[in-house]
Design a protein that fits this description.
The chain is an alpha/beta fold. The chain folds into four domains: 111 residues, no CATH class; 169 residues, Rossmann fold; 155 residues, no CATH class; 201 residues, Rossmann fold. Helices cover 26% and strands 27% of the residues. The strands form eight sheets. The chain has a seven-stranded mixed sheet, with helices on both faces. A six-stranded mixed sheet has the order 7-6-3-8-9-30, sandwiched between helices. Strands 13-12-15-16 form a four-stranded antiparallel sheet, with no helix packed on it. Strand 6 and strand 7 form a beta hairpin. 38% of the residues are buried.
Length: 668
Amino acid sequence: MIFLQSAFLFALPLIGLPILIHLINQNRHKTIPWAATMFLLQAKRMAKGMARLRYILLMAARMLAIAGLIFAVSRPMAGGWLGLTSSNSPEVTIIVLDRSVSMEEQQVQTSETKRSTALKKLAELVRTSENSSRLVLFDSVTQQPLEIRSVDELEELPEASSSATSTDVPALMQQVVEYLENNDTGRTDIWVCSDLRQNDWSPNAGRWEAVRRQLSAREGIRMFLLAYPDVAADNLAVSVSGVHRRESLDGAELVMDILVTRSGATEQEQSVDLTVVIDGARSRLPLKITGDRLVRKGHVIPLDSDTREGWGRVELPRDANMKDNVFRFVYAEPAVRKTVIVSDDDRAAEMFKVAAATASDRSLVYEAEILPSSSASAIGWEESAMIIWHAPIPDGLIARQLEDFVASGRAVMFYPPDNPGDQTLFNASWTDWVTPESGDHFTFKPWRTDADLLANAESGTPLPVGQVQCHRACGLDVEMATSLWQLDNGIPLLSRANTDQGAAYFCSTLPTPANSNLVTNGVTFYVMTQRALARGAGALGRARLLEAGSVSAETVVDWSPLDDLSNDVWVSQRGNMGGLFEGGERLLAVNRPLTEDSDRVVTDDTLSQVLAGIEYKRIDDEVGGAMQLASEVWRTFLILMIIALIAEALLSVPEQAVKSRPLTEVTA
């Protein structure tokens, strides 16, 4: 509870004034024994119990009246829960804002979103409480502190606007912790505004341990979680994959896979009119969705035979979230999907080659090349889409070339050798090989099914990951990584290092029979290899798909918009918003991360584990809700004072009546 006139709270000791007056009155009269009144004293003792109870209630009513008056003049404020904060205003108020796509779910009638609702209510809180503390904003896109001079600026800042990005909540909270460490903030309130989507919170991320340890150890920190966990029913999201041009009998055609997902558990059939835009020409595609997704595999759109490259969009009608209603793509002559395998183990290398070179799309060209680790300098970096590295982690020139390879948007998959060594790359290093403490294979923790290499198929069918048996695994010491698959003992079996672009994966076991059954139960191994290859191939050729938030602000300056919608995007926001651009020699399509299409919310138990040891208050709100974070409640205390005075008057009536009766009436 906040008190706008907290100086009046120093008068709280006056609550004891009725007790003090009672004690003074007790010692004011001198007692003189008088035999004629002894029978009256005896009668009074018989009624002493009820009299004492009434007197205690009378005293409590007087004390409550004084307390109510003091609290009323102190102008208390409270929200929709008890004890929003203590009476002391913070020196610094930090707002941690989730600007992800899912935060743009809106109330259709007012177009107010989760993000705008949170900003509006926090601004009202600061204004109403006349808070003079410093206001600092951490947004999920820049992840940098921005000191705000006036709360009136909060809702208009570009750093608080919508975006087409996802949110790395543990990384964002780590930035907040570092800010607290580097600045003498004193008493600090931290307001985390989020919709608690599981893909954003990453409960298994290694950063959470450091965040918990540092926040729980600091004094003067109060944390509030302003949550919007409700998921809009029947919200649709569209995405496209596998876009490529191919020759046909009639000239040429564009082939793509279309996926439409629907939030909420419903089996009711829903008709959807999908709009497809190719180089400005619009066509209508009527669809019917039953369940939570619809997959249209190999959808074909005729092209002129002379059309070698271009751009396009697929669009859904307006619904609860406009940010996931459009998906953009570009197309050109497809590049060869080439994989280079660096390994000194011939048997393992052949297994990698089969998984990488077996075509998942017959219209594309796949190649795989095996090199020993001593010949790693012969890697064709420019034409390769993926590198499988089954050798000790390199250092020196090769390590820098691998970093540049990933930074260019392509993929590397690291597998542990027999003698791992202690080198570190992408903040990761192999440790020692381990075997199960009991039985012949490890058990797994739940793996990530909403995104990345082990995600469910487009139809929603899960991969047979549970059928995999791991007999031997190499420990992985990794920082700033996303765990996709873990053993029950906590060792990460499949992780993705956090990189700005591209992907660096670490798989802690091998497909050989002595280590796992990844080959004999080959679906999981083949799918994860092909998905990593497809991600790397997206950086080859003239057409390229990018995720919003993965491009630096300096890179987008020279981009030229390809369509009218992209022309409306500010230059500074091109990397964070969806759009179609031409940059240098490439056609670029920027879209939201597909992880944002998942509607899974962090459970209460998981949230308690993630924030274990941190004292925080959770406030669940809804879009456009009328609940205020804080409002003056002095009227409540004034009413309480009036009730206490009325009670005091009623309790005093019997006592005054007895005192006013004549002595003859009493003695009778």
